[in-house]
Design brief:
Helix content is 44%, strand content 11%. The chain has helices at 2-9, 13-24, 33-45; strands at 49-51, 55-57, 62-63.
């Protein structure tokens, strides 16, 4: 755990996530940062789709409404 903290302090978040994944195994949900950015871009542009068989996709399923995120007050 100290190794993960050190990596975070060094701005090496991706490497820190790998350490946590090794510690927690399948219980640690990890998503590729590039995949997450791609989904975010698709959602922002209104191009993200979802289906029960394919999950999130750029090409298969029902279109999701475009969203730039939540802009309400969070306390």
């Amino acid at each position: 755990m100290q190794e993960a903290k050190k990596l975070l302090d060094e701005k090496k978040e991706g490497e820190a996530k790998k350490v946590w994944k090794d510690i927690f195994g399948k219980n640690f949900p990890a998503i590729d940062d590039n995949e997450a950015k791609a989904f975010s871009d698709l959602l922002s542009s209104g191009s993200l789709k979802y289906s029960t068989t394919a999950g999130l996709s750029a090409s298969v399923g029902s279109a999701m409404a475009a969203s730039k995120g939540f802009y309400g007050d969070i306390f």
